[in-house]
Amino acid sequence: MAVLHRALVTWFLSLVFLILLVLRLDGRTRWNWFIVFIPMWILDSIMILYALVVMVSPCRSGDRWREVTANLTSVLAVLLKLAFQTCLCLHLQYPMAGLPLHAALAPLLVLLTGATVSLMRNLIQTHCN
Fold it and tell me: Which residues constitute the domain of residue 122?
């Protein structure tokens, strides 16, 4: 998929998600929170499939473990985002179920911590070279 197509799909699904979110928060609809997050789950599944396809191609042609580990990190980040979205939907849809907000935000905290560590490591490596 070309970069332009990926950008258009991302923008379109983000726009649909924001429209559904505004309709739900405004009180015009009483949809389930899982329905509101469907565009984000579609985007996440496309990202996982794309990362898996990109990860398999270097393995077929040769031994490039750096690219494979980078794609595995991307898949892990998307899986953490999916876990966060699921926990957030459970917290919002079923407030009496007892899922505290800090437990719903835990996957996001892990994701942001990992992204910060990765960014700092890349900055240090770039600065030292």
Answer: 3-128
